[in-house]
Amino acid sequence: MKQTVQFKLNGESIQIEVEPHLSLLQVIREKLELTGTKEGCGMGECGACTVLVDGKAINSCLFPILEVEGKSVTTIEGLIEADGTLHPLQRSFVENGAVQCGFCTPGMVLSAKALLDQHPKPTEKQIRLAISGNLCRCTGYIQIIRAIQAASEQ
Amino acid sequence: MTEFINVGKRIPKSDAQEKVTGKAIYIQDLKIPGMLWGKILYSHHPHARILNIDTSEAEKLPGVKAVLTGYNIPTIKFGFYKDNTPLKSNKVCSYRDEVAAVAAIDPDIAEEAINLIKVEYELLPPVFDPEEAMKEGAPLIHEDHLGGKEKKPTNILNIPWKLVAGDVEEGRKNSDYVAENRFKVTWVTHCCMGTSGCIAQFDPRDNLTIYSNTQIPSLAQRDFTEALSAMGLQGKKVRLIKATIGGAFGSKLDTYPYEYIAILLAHRTRKPVKIIFSREEEFFATSPRQAAIIDIAQGCKKDGTLTFRDVRMVLDNGAYTSWGATTPSVMMMPISSLYKVPHVRYVAKCVYTNNTYSQAFRGYGNPQATFAIESQIDSLAEMAGIDPLDFRLRNANTPGEVTPQRFKVGTCGLRECIDAVAQRLDWRQNRGKRDGRGVGMASLIHVGGGARVYKSDGCGTIIKVDDFGTVNVITGATDMGQGADTVIAQIVAEELGVRIQDVVVTHTDTDICPWDVGAHASRTTFVAGNSAKMAAKKVKEQLLEVASRSLGEVPENLEIRDRMVFSKIDPEKKSPLGKVLRAAHYTTGGKMVMAEYFYDPPNENLDKEFKGNLSVTYAYGTHGVEVEVDKTTGQVNILKYIAAHDVGRAVNPMLLEGQVYGGAAMGIGYALMEQLVLNNGKVINPDFRDYKILTASDIPTIEAITIETDDPFGPFGAKGIGEPGLVPTAPAIANAIYDAIGVRIKDLPITPEKILAALKGKDSK
Amino acid sequence: MKKFDYLKPQSLEEVLSLLNQFGTKAKLIGGGTDAIVMQRQNKISPDLFISLRGIPGLDHIEGNGLLKIGAMVTHRAIEQSPLIRERFPLLSEASGLLGSVQIRNVATLGGNLCTASPSAETAPPLLVYEAEVHLISQKGERRIPLESFFLGPGETALEQKEVLKEILLQPPPPNSRGAYLKLGRRKAMDLAVVNVAVLLTLNPKTGICERARIALGAVAPTPIRVREAENIIEGNQLNDELIRKAGEMAKHTCSPISDIRASSEYRREMVGVLVEKAIRQSLT
Fold first, then answer.
1. Which domain holds residue C125?
2. Which chains touch B (3 or more CB pairs under 8 A)?
3. Which of the four CATH numbers 3.90.1170.50, 1.10.630.10, 3.40.30.10, 3.30.70.100 does domain B31-124+196-276 have?
4. pLDDT digits (tens, 9 = 90+) for B148-157
5. Does A24 fall in a domain?
6. Is A132 exposed, middle or buried, given 0-12, 13-18 or 19+ CB atoms closer than 10 A?
């Protein structure tokens, strides 16, 4: 039994018919074809599916789609500016070697964004804590932490 | 050393922008119109005879397009030992055995269909301990597998890993001190953030296109071509296209049953079929690093000079054979050649069990062997009353040395690495206090200039240059996140005199890209880099030849820099590169500027005695760590981590450091917390909740120190660095723990429980 | 993936009537970080989830004396609430250690308690604060101590048609200090191998420990209070010997199991270590 859900996705209002058992992740990846958000585990343990709901980082794989009703969702696709300019965090990830295989990157960038929106000048410890829910197997996190630091200093 | 314009620079990874914006397309993201979804039914038992498979209910389910079992598919054998099949008939030998597969119009229906398949089993006695499996009368995993002199059924594989150099008994006699220990290492798995998957598709002429995330495109193409032959499709073509790879680390160095299953389903249904692993499947149905029991003895003289090294290993092969069974070929390297040791013996047995089967994993046996060797070096140094730092310096490899395995050591910065670590750890000051804080170090040797494990260790490159000066580099190499794409672009830009932005590297399609043996053995920068450099050199010659005509200057006097061709003696004679190229194309009898090069390094296959110069050059490194151990809980806190590596030359220091950090992070996990736990053959922690990899809060600050030895064979002096970062991590940590609290843990991972138990044992003594 | 319906009632009354209507086919869902995972793992398979997210009045943190925390308050909100940090710091600390930021932004206190995991992060602090839970059903409302709410792993005193509405915390007596310690394998994103909360009330003049509350997680079928250990130190001037004895007693009172995260022996051992440590930390 499909239901209608309305929410803001990357600034645009959308209305979509969904099956109620779907997760936000399934809807944005499969129905809306925004594949920048990744599924790494489907159990809320890796953070690859991180998106922002009303500015807060959440695991979209565990987020029931009907709960986004009336909320504002930001995915990685929503960070880049209309003219193609990268968000300062994205630029910093590129420049600091924070990207290897890249599968964790969209989620990582969004967790970092949620942090910087709340704490524009975080300590290293705050950065580490903010991205502890985002597993990365390539980088050992060092250059990711550096990239977030660098972005916060701009 | 010479300064370069592109080489040696911290240039961002070529596809980083795609990745930070979510635009990179991984196998998960790829869809083909009309595509079906495949799912696999796995065994419910570790060892059982299949009596019956009833697929009738599954077949009836609307949306199901095909149901396959081992009984309705052609026989396809694959794997290093050709003992694996896509779907099992007759019997299952492990929990990960594939019993049936379904293709359906969506993943939910496929899943539902899988649950409707009924399999009747007759249970067989299983064996999970490789030492038990070696015994006479143990349950046989493959009844038709014969071995030994009498050709009797056995679980011991017919791979006689044995390296003997010198006379270890003689060495033992001449030793003043001998240490003998048993070490154990367990299964750990790659945990690629992107799970495995593929899409298989046939064209109307039965040619296969497979979208994959393999790290061995050319060898996978060969495997799949063989599979087509087995399916009665002789002479049909295989095209392999790589999506962006969400991590590999060796996990994608072999072909897997699921890929053959996707091919079979696609052929049966005449539709594209996609299989994507769930995280749970990724944990239990891909192949981990091998578990092993390591018995090791080493001896030394009073002054610390090593006298011999004698190692025996039993490796748990699991139920089938992939590259895990060949890791002893790499274990031989540190056993024979880490430090100068005159007498060496190594014997390894790989044994079938009903456990999961193993694969390549970053380091390929080296981390396991180095854990035993380097842990014991500290014990031996202690017996001899010598500071482990001095002990290592005394025995360190040096340039020009030929090791017992006949490795020819060229450039070697091992001493510099050891010194750098000692200095950064303030070693003399901090060692030996036993006050809960301690320092430890361990070193490594690894292949740094390719590794001739096949007849060829080659990689092809094609370079073409278009009308506008864009340089298309078409390489056999594979980028799986490590930065091969970027490093190759830097090397070509440097050689050719163009800007890095002018170079486009293509590495994703076997219909286009030349042959390469694969992204393994830390060989890509060295082998693919040399290949690209040589191809660029040929292209440059052509470019200068063309330019010489229009500029009226002999090619020897011409140079290219920053998109401009100019005369070195007459600065007036110059022309933009694009103009030169257009002139070449728009001329009667015109010429296309394009070149290829196949670089196969001058290294040697190991001979029948497993000796020979496997790699053109060797990579060295030393990791040093300071830890704090909580004696009440057994918890280890890493206070300082130094990773010094002889890298030849850092083509891209930023990406290189990324390899070191990432390697060390994996190594710390290997040392302290990672373990794929098998309970009677079943993986009981197939999730990130209980298979713990480090989080950003756990990673210590790692200081990467680069020792540049400018290797004469490397592209611009570079050696490989992909694997070394995790090789010495576990023993460095184990040694630091010993220095802190005086207990030595000889089986990985070093859990707080083991530390506490060892501390209690020590107190009761 | 098994399908389910998902209802978003607008009032508690509506929730209760839906529970009545659907019985065991329905399951309440808070943040869903446990419920959805259990559903995916086939540990539960409701036809219907009834969401509490839209219910007004379940997400408050308020009260001057008695503090009321709505069942739908997220761990992130608790972690960041100055009120809780000041008055119930152990709860604040424990909430900040649960899962990741992403989980804490969604996972609710009520959900954490209703999942009733033996290692529930917030349970030991709430037990030492002697929290009560306010339950409501069509039959009426009741308040019971949290301690009697937990019945076993995944089992609570919540009746099938009952809803956990809020968590109530009485302010501890003046001069109370405590500590929350969690032992995990990682520094973040980890389930507790053992977690311990201690709350001591010390007479500022005599230094005598007038009241002691000690609670343990992950070492019994439910989070537990260890009164036997509390009794050892209550009414006494604390010294090394007594602290050691309290630790020993806690160690012998709990009943840990062996699982993939730790052996029962290690857990038991760690109870002693952490209880001692937590008592000492409470004194400083």
1. 61-169
2. A, C
3. 3.90.1170.50
4. 888 999 999 9
5. yes
6. buried
